[in-house]
Structure formats: C-alpha cells, structure tokens
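Extended Data, panel c. Modelled sequence:
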Amino acid sequence: MDVIDTTLRICSPTDSREKLQPKNGIDEEQGISLQEQRAMQDYYDNIDKKDPYSAVLVPKVDDQEISRFGTLILVIISMILVVVTLPFSLCYCVKVVQEYERAVIFRLGRLKKGGASGPGLFFILPCIDKYSCLDLRTVSYEVPPQEMLSRDSVTVSVDAVCFYKVSNPLAAVCNVGSYTHSTNLLVATSLRNVLGTKTLAEILSEREMICHVMQNILDEATRPWGVKVERVEIKDVRVPVQLQRAMAAEAEAAREARAKVVAAEGEQKASIHLKDAALVLEESTSALQLRYLQTLNAISREQSSTIVFPFPIDTLCLSMGSDKDKKKAD
C-alpha cells in the first residue's frame, strides 16, 4: 500500500498552497508519480475549501454515559459512607425547609431532577450534593432617593418602594448570580429612566400611571430571573427649596387673580340687583319709607358708637317729585 505524505507546506501570502511541479511525470523530491501528485493536490484543495478539522477523524466519546457512570459510582460510595457513619450522618443528610421556602439541590454540579424540594424534609448525600434555600415570601425594597432631571429640566428627588417575590426558584438560582441585588439595581435604574421622560407636573399628578408602567417594565425584565414584581409605589417627590418658593408664589398669584375675578363678578351682579331695587322703590314712596325705617332698625341693634341722625323722608319725596316734574316738562 502506498503511503502519502500529508505534511503541509508553508506558502507565501499570495498562494494558498505551493503547487508541486513534477519533472518527466515523477517528483524528484518525493519520488511519486504525476497521478499520485494530482490526487494529493486535490486532497489539499478539499481541505482548503472545507473545515480542516472535518477531514480528521476523531473517535466519538459519549460524555453523557461517562458522566452517568461516574455519578453512579460516587452516589454508591456516598451512600456507603452514610450507612457506615449512622446515626451521625443523619445530622448532615436530613434537612428541613419551611412552608414558605424551597430548596434547589445540585448533585455533582448538575441540577437534580424533580425541581425544587420542599416544604418539609428532604435528603442529601454528603460530599456530592449542595443545596440553596430560597424564601418565597414577598420582599419590600425601599429605593434610595434618586435625583434626576425631568423632561422640563427640573431637578427632583424621588423615593419609591418595590414589592417582589421569587416565583421560580430554579430560575432564580441558575439564571442570575444574585436575584436580590440585580432586582434592586434594576428598580433604581428603571425609576430614573421612566421619570426622566416626564415633566414635573406629570410626576406630581400621574403617579398611578407611572407606577403601573414601572411595574410592567420590571415584571418583563425580571421574568427570566424567576422574580415576580407585584407592586411599585412612589413615596415622595422632593423639589429644591427655591423652586418650592417660586411654585408657591405662582399659585398665590393665580389664586389672587381668581379671587379678583369672582369679586368683580359679584359686584356686577349686585349692581344689577340694586338697579332693579331702585326702580321698584321709585314707583312707591311708601316702600322707600319702609326701607328707611328698616335701615334704622338694623343700625340700632348693633352695639357700636354710631350716631344716627334721622333725615326727613318727605324732603326726599319732594326732591323726587320735583325731578319727575322736570322730566315731564322736558
């Protein structure tokens, strides 16, 4: 059987591989025929066109079978160790989790089948099993005061509270390093991003809508981590003292303007009613006399130093009668 030398030759950057140039149909350097040379050249060309590693046959090794076999041996050894050290080994092997807790068990670095264990008793093997216990109760996180710039270029400081819990213990352990730390950072960042797109008036008046938007954003982002965000609430919105004074002055001026408008409208309506009353009194002299007596009665009831000088009503009647005569004469 002929042996073909598969040693690769170093070529220049312009040529992919050095071509063999035979003389008289036989390569003097290697002593092979032209047909063998062409076959070898085609072999190298095929390697250049394809993945070089695809031409090398590597024996397939079933890693899963080896892992199962090794795991079985270590499990048997660990169980023998537990039986030999009874009853002292029960202190390490038997664990208890509460009703609100779940235990995620890893055997030789791999997640144990069956999901999270608990609540109640569960059994682990020494030296090959490790477990992580998670609390499924709702956790409250108070976001530190976040200073940010609103859309209308106002610096505000906002406090918020976030309530979340673990909904999938396996994802909380396997998909993220620390779900609490990651969730807390995400809450603070989302708060700044959402409020940065709102004006100061919207932040103060649309708190419920902002909390709802933040809850949807956080719930969607933390779902791969096995965390469920239940509620987000804005506690307080603080603005600088100078801005508070400016806002107070603006509100006071607005209230004064509205008060003046209301007073002017009241005077206008009062003048209209006084005009109607004067027309009624002009038609009856006795009505004017009764109004004069009613005014005197009201003044006399007040305990004050007011001095009342009665004015003869007949003089008024004469003056009113003379005015009427002049009008008729005109």
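The mean pLDDT is 75. This feature is highlighted in the accompanying rendering.
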